[in-house]
User: Fold this.
Amino acid sequence: MSAQPDYATAPPPAPAPTAAAELLARVRSSCHSEQWAQAFERDWAQALEDSRHSYSLTPLHDVVRSWEARLAVTPAVDAFLASGMDDSDGIALEDILGARS
Assistant:
């Protein structure tokens, strides 16, 4: 008999050890690099501090996953904004991804 319930989902796989460096390089090469590089470094520094206190890599993995998601949707968002469509009824990214600590 398993200690895990049948309905429990497996946690997502851990990002590669080089994922953060690769993400930072992608952020710096994007058209939003001026603002996003600072934001990524701030998020990463906070996650490092959280990891030191919790002895867990989860905060670091969460930063990598959230920034991967942001970079994945960037082309679609840029295309939408360039199209001139009304975006006044948009939803804040924090409402979708959760608030940053």
User: Anything to note?
Assistant: The chain has four helices and no strands. The chain has a mean pLDDT of 85.
